[in-house]
């Protein structure tokens, strides 16, 4: 199966973006005269491989032999990860912004959105929450002044609303363990550039110790069906499918007609997908069935529900004493600090000392970074998490994960704050929740923009006929500045698929992350 | 009929008609072409006139100073200047493709003028050899020139943009023999040669050489044409051509016209070597000028006699009582005399079909029909019926003929005929008429004597509207250029930009504010125009203040910021860069200021600017740590300095020189202690101060341990690791000492020690430890350590001691004791839920195993 995702069914023509990047890269290489050798930094090769098949590059490769080293800038602003997900590939965005005040990534995000506008028209409605988001909206407006997108060239805007959200606004969600299939795969096996790397023995191969790459994107029908489900349900779905197939298999011995055989063979085509996911799911359960995993979930739930901080503090203390991986400890500690708006001074100093003693003094830099970013700090005022939680109904009791009616299923009962905000932004804008927004970090903004208008009458006529005629829904572009988790993406997909939803959602992000990868960006080594 | 008068002016050359309409009565006075050197630019370009200093001329009421005068094609003076250059006689003068006047004097110096007779600096020279040997002849083409020296050497500039002269190969005999001089030269432009380099044709004696940079090759035209060989005339070759007195290359570079010593005009193919024309003139006297008229015929000019030779038939003669100059164009020749400018061209087919005497072509009938229609004659209808089937062809011809006309009334008549016909024709592309009208309006506008660019439609199409506009603005006809741009829906930016720059140059005494107003008024006409480019020009003209005012209006920060820096507006540049959000720009400004200013001034400048400061710090952290320390010190951020020092201590630790026993350990600890002291200076950093102090203490202890154990395994591990290592080494005293030094809590100590003992499988020691006193952590650490080490038997010793029943049940479950787990759960309060969970855990793996069964073979 191709690792490069199939983008045929995307609500926007993302293929054109990929093709444009392909063209730009090939042209860039062609521009250099004579023979050349392309040296790709391993960090980049993943992103590049999502854009261009190696076969295209092979032609260039044959010219081999390096000549002179030429360094050129390849303006890669975005990579479509899937039909509805775009990544700007800015790994350190959150840490850069929060710790170092280096907001370069904001300009790049704005630039990327502006590039999209050149293809799909000026986005008329903008809703932003968070310092970075508001700044991006601002830069975007400047760019429209500097290099205007001409509305006449692109016609009716295909993207109706732009929602910008800073990761900083919701640091709770990424610190919780994702419970969707794709989310869990990322938590335990680390999905990078649309694939996981696992021991081949996991996938049932006989060769021990060999690593193999398993591509994960919507070209895989079974994965498309299961990726956004709660993992519990995935196991059930797989079981059901396997059982049916098993029955078919036994039946086939008794049936002889050609058409029945044909049907069976058709079903057999999905067999490799079935086996692949059964293997992966089984591998995941070796992690999820562990006692420590369950108590970890327990703790997260307790923190989010803001029930008993003392138990949680003791739990974290014990984690340190057991010397569990530092990222895991910090992840929970950050969740603790964020929901509690910090730690009391005494506990703060105590826990930091324990950390430094247990893991080494070099981690003082990480602690300092987290403090600068406001993720791990001394408590100065009372937490307003209770209010936020209550008003936005973040805790949903009795979540039926198999037949969900709310986004809360992705965290088995906790509805991600970020997605609740998006939900609000789509349905009613910021106005009804202004009070809550004020409790969250950063300013918010809601504006209407317009391109340089062609005659308005023509526009509206066009709009009326166009929107209905081609049967496509308007698109909302949701941009996460500082990264997004797979579970949040699943929650958005769930929203988009709900009845009565008038929009298709496209998700763009600086990077796909989970709590651990986010924490790791803050852990520069002091030495 | 009106038609008759048109064709009456035509001349027939064999079967082709030629016409020679007068385009302008020259507006100039007292210009005698015979007394002057004259350079006329093709595509209806300007005419440069300067008194010929190689001729003896009588001065009338004029100054003895020579003047270079530049006229448009209608003889309107555009500009003039006094010529007083050294370097000897003016040898060659010609216009380049971009309408720069190239003047080459005897010593090889090249003076360049623009259309405003302003000298373009710097002057260039053809080289030392030309200076020493003198240039005797130049042959120009659109973008280059070849010079012949007295010594017989050839030098070439093949691109006027770069102006790099180089020497061509020597022609055999020419450089050795002073007496031998080439009789004539011609150039084949680079675009027409195989090699892509210029080729010079040099006629010496009986031979013609093709010369390029590498070699000079003699060419022979000795292959007789088919007819000649049939006539038995097979001795036809160079011998018969003999010495060539004059030669020119055809406009497409494929043919060569020669005028031989015995008065014959011979046209041969350059590649085929076949002779296309061979005509014997009455006299062997070489013509003063020779030119191709398009690709159809060749013109030869002697005093008062202009002869046109075609491939067949008798030549046509035109007589002039005044000197003329032939200006070759792509589709004909312009003939300039003292009093008029004519355009000699082959009559276009469409025009011929309409106006030829007695023509009954559909187009002629359509044109006639309009005439009848205007006179309300019923014959109009009759004509239309006659041509019904070929009406669209007739309309097409009328449109085409209109395009070729210079006379506006006739243009109109032909276009009216076309649209009259179009009304009866259903299948004709209607925009053809409009398009031609639009083109003609442009052409008529530039043909106006005051503009004086007599372009034919063919020339216009070859030149392209873009180039035409650039020529117009070059001649400062900005308004017309703007109108044409608007009319043709082209980008006005070029025009407005050029105007703005020209305006700034031309208004040195206008006050900045006033000039800005004038400029903005026009610049605003064009969205997206680069204010920065205009500002750069203003700055180059020495008007820095105006530049600053202009750049304020530039919307594109990428253009604005660098310019602000170059005009010294660093503060504004920093503000604008920050506003843009483009951090690359901010860095650009930071680096610029960093380089230009002393550090303290630089620090002060960025300290107040959050983004600039943060970016500088982020950069310096990676690349300029010492400099960053200075910055933090100067701005009083002591704790940041402390962090830097602390970090440096690790860099030192990583240095391989810092291995065991090296004196580097001393400075390292000192560095950390210094950091600790700096932290202590601010109240907010007591924690860090204490941590650094502890770190220094730890390092000391670790060094001592390494010395006493003779094992380099302590330095740079954590306190926990140090204790663990001590226990593993069974050095309990050292472990206890570290514990008390750092006040390790009892809880941590229990976890640490149990796990350390489990690592070395000291189960006895573990049991002993569990009995020392009641563990402050409960027995959990012991259970965990044993289960982790997969020692179920050991674990069973401690599990019953767990006080929490749920915990106890879970622990049993983990080691697979289902029954005991269930018992414990049953005793616990919320036992039901717990039991359910156990059931799940036990069954989950079983599910997958059964699932995979049917697929084992297939995967």
TrEMBL record, chain A:
Its main location: membrane. Keywords: Membrane. The keyword Metal-binding does not apply. The keyword Membrane applies. Pfam families: Sec1. It comes from the Eukaryota. GO terms for cellular component: endomembrane system. It is a peripheral membrane protein. It is found in: Endomembrane system. PANTHER family: VESICLE PROTEIN SORTING-ASSOCIATED. Belongs to the STXBP/unc-18/SEC1 family. This is Vacuolar protein-sorting-associated protein 33 homolog. It comes from Eruca vesicaria subsp. sativa.
UniProtKB/TrEMBL annotation, chain B:
Keywords: Membrane, Vacuole. InterPro entries: VPS16, Vps16_C, Vps16_C_sf, Vps16_N, WD40_repeat_dom_sf. One of its GO terms (cellular component) is vacuolar membrane. Gene3D superfamilies: Vps16, C-terminal region. Residues 529-836 form the Vps16 C-terminal domain. Its main location: membrane. Residues 8-431 form the Vps16 N-terminal domain. Required for vacuole biogenesis and vacuole enlargment in dividing and expanding cells. Involved in the docking or fusion of prevacuolar vesicles. This is Protein VACUOLELESS1. It comes from Eruca vesicaria subsp. sativa (Garden rocket).
